[in-house]
Amino acid sequence: MLRLARESIPRTQAAMAEALGVDLGTLQGWESGRRPLANTKAGALLSLRRRLALLGADAGVVGLLDPAMDADQIIGAALEPPEVLELHPLASWVHTRDTAHMLAWALTGVAPFALAGRIPVPRRGPAAAAPLLAAGDRGQFFEHLRETAESARQGAGGVLLHRQALYLASYDRGPEAASWTAHALYARRGLLVRRGWSEHWPEARSTATALARLGDPQPLLDFIERSLAGDDTAEAANLNYWAYWLGGIRLPQSDDGFMRDRELTGWDPVTLLRGLVRGLHYAPGYVDLYAHTLWSLLTAYPWLPQASGVLAAELEERTGRLLDGGVISERSRHELGALHYVLRDRT
After folding, report:
1. What is the Cα–Cα distance from 230 to 103, expressed in whole angstroms?
2. How far apart are CA 242 and CA 271, in angstroms?
3. How far apart are CA 61 and CA 52, in angstroms?
4. Helix or strand or coil: residue 122?
């Protein structure tokens, strides 16, 4: 990410090192990972961000330095596990979409959605096109996640650690790994029969979305029907989680308590609408979760189409496309139909 920020200015490594007031070896170490940027002193890191902005670096790239460093910490904890599980970064805070996408970039080579159009065409030379982990490190990373998911227990961050480790393990699509993950997830399907909000709701949501990632959307459809739709606390939890996941809640959250805010404070509805509309996922199951969340958001804030005409027009086009040919549930078809009617008649 630091290399992308430098290239967006653009500056050579030597010129960038001079502009930042560091020696060339330090900058090269930061960019290669030999000297993790996350280990830099807080004051120096703050100064670095401000200096990048003054030099004209792409603000979107600079803004992704934090989730990139979060991903580095998670990878580092997998390759050199902490002695105390409670100190594991997956037990310390609820991770966001940007962090998850940074991890996926390192594990699968698929660039984050937020970097679309920002990664230059690869040139000849030693610079890697993606921060892809070596095969051995990837194997060690996923093995650590599986061991951690099995060993994490209730209390002292165990629930959060177990849930997030198991979710990230679903990124390993090897046949044996996918079989292990599917077995571990299906073992928790009892969580999906609970109706409405419960203390196990976040774990049930994570289980359902991870199974959808593995190609089984039915648990997610069941979750929407039984554990989300029509329950005010669950609907609020879903909106609060989406706001956090998409970066609308800036402060890191150490547990799931923020989801229970029935007043929906701490995030901007327009920002959430933008994230949902522009990140709409069309995969089976996922698209239905997006559809219901959009319906819930506009039900809670019926003025949103008037607040942002551009977003309303984009959403109208996307809902129309899904209604015409999308593979969606009957609930989604009904909710998107209601949304499309409101959006079409907003003027």
Report:
1. 34
2. 11
3. 10
4. coil
Q: How far is CA 233 from CA 162, 226, 227, in A?
A: 24, 13, 10
Token pair in block for residue 88: 């594991």
In which residue are the tokens 């039900």 written? 299
Contact, 235 vs 273, CB < 8 A? no
Angle between helices 135-151 and 65-79 in degrees, nearest 10: 80
DSSP 130: S
Q: Which residue type is seen at 7?
A: E
The answer to whether the beta carbons of residues 283 and 212 sit under 8 Å apart is: yes
| CA–centroid distance for 122 within its chain | 26
Interatomic CA distance for residues 54 and 74, integer angstroms: 30
- The Cα 27–Cα 209 span in angstroms is 39
Looking at residue 82, the DSSP 8-state letter turns out to be: -
Listed residue (28, 48, 32) closest to 40, CA to CA:
48
Supply the DSSP symbol for 121.
Answer: P
pLDDT, one tens digit per residue, over 11-69 is: 999 999 999 999 999 999 999 888 888 888 888 889 999 999 999 999 999 999 999 99
Of 239, 245, 229, 275, the residue nearest 259 (C-alpha):
239
CA 229/CA 225 separation, integer angstroms: 6
In the three-class reduction of DSSP (H, G, I as helix; E, B as strand; rest coil), residue 229 is classed as coil
Q: At what angle do helices 24-32 and 13-20 cross, to 10 degrees?
A: 110
Give CA torsion, residues 135, 141, 146, 147, to 10 deg. 120
Q: 């004051």: which residue's tokens? A: 43
Q: Name the nearest CA neighbour of 227 among 199, 203, 193.
A: 193
- Residue 200: exposed, middle, or buried by beta-carbon count in 10 A (0-12, 13-18, 19+)? middle
Judged by average pLDDT, the poorest of 18-27, 78-87, 233-242 is 78-87
Q: E strands along 127-254, which residues?
A: none
